[in-house]
Write a structure and sequence with these properties.
Distance between the termini: 49 Å
Number of strands: 2
Largest sheet: 2 strands, antiparallel
Number of helices: 12
Radius of gyration: 31 Å
Length: 319
Amino acid sequence: MSVLGSTGAGPAADQDRRPPRAPDLPRGPHAGPQDAAPSDPALVTQHGVVTVERPRPAADGAARRGVGRAGRVALSLVVPVLVLLTWYVATEVTGTFAPHQLPSPGAVVRAGVELATWENGPTFGTHIQISVQRVLLGFLIGSLAGLGAGALVGLSRLADSLLASTVGAVRAVPSLGWVPLFILWIGINEDSKVLLVAVGAFFPVYTTVASALRHVDPHLVEVGRAYGLRGPALLLRVQLPAATPAVVSGLRLALAQSWLFLVAAELIASSMGLGFLLTDSTNNGRVDRILLSLVTLAVLGKLTDALIGVAEKRLLRRW
């Protein structure tokens, strides 16, 4: 009988030439692998070769992480469920609020079904599609511009001296203040709305990227330069990866700002979108549609933020 990893006098070893744990070894001078307890999961004998089954910490860790993630998801649903129950009791059970003040959750659902099957104009799905399209385009344009400007100001003292105070002053302009100017310059069309959303996404990314690049560890930058990295190569391979958490935080803020600026853009001179639906419902006294629009905006904002969170985990795992 051949024993893998054993010379006959020494202890048996597993396939990695590591000695098995003491409780896994058979007892007695003449004890063989067949003498091991059948119930011992750590020792398996097959064709005269002793192999030791070790625990799988990776699988156990994945299982624990899955349980922990499910627990966090369950905890995050506690408050929304309580709010929904309170809303239902206050409107359907006790009648604390009149329907024209606060419609019940069922009335809001029925308003959504009514809009989804609307035949005299854009459906609810069309409103959502238009709003999501404007947010994604504006967020992409604003984030790229903010990333470039933030990198320039964060890495160049000259650019910092020239641009930082001016950009800081422009950032203080309220979102609605840009609307008349964009309408005069671009007109009442999609471009003006997307540009307003891009303005909202620009400043959070610009601020966080510029600040994060200023505080990158100088020793790390020196190591990059010692390997011959300069300019864009140093930025993309050393400085931006070092600033990844701050950059992702800026992107999440930019996405939230994009939804905020979207509503501002669609409240004025728009015929479709969730912001238009808010204005139209206000004019018609449809509180159920107003609540439907607000809940939809909240859900869409959370979903897009979750996508940024997934990208953040992948980036942090890589860098």
